[in-house]
Amino acid sequence: MNIVFDLDGTLIDSAPDIQAVSAKILGKLGKPALTIEETRNFVGEGARILVSRMMAARGIEETPERHAQIFGEFVAEYEFAVEKAVFYPGVVDALAVLKGGGHKLALCTNKPELPARAVMKHMGLEPIFDAFIAGGMTKNPKPDPEMALKCVADLGGGPALYVGDSGTDAQTAANAGLPFALYTEGYRKSPVDEIPYDWAFDHFDLLAGIVAEAQARHRAV
Ligand SMILES: O=C(O)COP(=O)(O)O
Ligand SMILES: [Mg+2]
Questions:
Q1: Is the dihedral of CA 80, 86, 92, 95 positive or negative?
Q2: Interface pTM (ipTM) of the complex?
Q3: Atom number, ligand 1, closest to the C-alpha of residue 45
Q4: Where are the domains of the chain?
Q5: Could you say which of 3.40.50.300, 3.40.50.1220, 3.40.50.1000, 3.40.50.720 is the CATH number of the domain covering 2-13+85-220?
Q6: Quick check: is 6 catalytic?
Q7: Fold identical between 2-13+85-220 and 15-78?
Q8: Which ligand is closest to the CA of 134, given by its number?
Q9: CA atoms within 13 A on the CB side of 60
Q10: Domain 15-78 is of which CATH architecture?
Q11: Atom of ligand 1 nearest to the CA of 9
Q12: Each residue's pLDDT tens digit in the chain (221 positions)?
């Protein structure tokens, strides 16, 4: 089966790296860095929205020019912010088990392409994924279904499961017509029961079982 994964808040906790970027950018403007809590809340809809939220949170008035300037500075630093990211518990083993079981895996992230590629390389994820779509590689970011559908097509088509941590991911899966497994320990902004999902899980040890159920469900229809 094809399995499409979100990145930030699903496979890795990258908030400390993003917080460090905010410290550099906001520091130059004489403003305090984002807190980890703010960072987790601001991630999920891509870097442009993250920068808008960061500006609003620090009382920086947003004009198109000001946003473009701060966004440019942010993205220039973002590519090198990979040192603090950590995998959520069980991710490495779960990905190896799924890959070893013959499943095809795709990464589908709103994180811009350069930092997404950089963190994948740093975390040794490149050989795991058979398809990769990041922010800026399609016309529309998630929750538009374009990224997820492109991942499934790049994997060769066929049944797929989408795995993510947020309401944006739930919406993406719904828009793409894919079943959705919600990882509950990421950057979720609403209670689990307010996010539509087919499966919810709090540890990656549970994912192989969910994939087996998704396959069985697909065979049954
Ligand atoms: O960078 C973002 O805003 C989100 O990244 P994600 O799609 O991997 O959660
Ligand atoms: Mg996410």
A1: negative
A2: 0.95
A3: 3
A4: 2-13+85-220, 15-78
A5: 3.40.50.1000
A6: yes
A7: no
A8: 1
A9: 24
A10: Orthogonal Bundle (1.10)
A11: 9
A12: 999 999 999 999 999 999 999 999 999 999 999 999 999 999 989 999 999 999 999 999 999 999 999 999 999 999 999 999 999 999 999 999 999 999 999 999 999 999 999 999 999 999 999 999 999 999 999 999 999 999 999 999 999 999 999 999 999 999 999 999 999 999 999 999 999 999 999 999 999 999 999 999 988 87
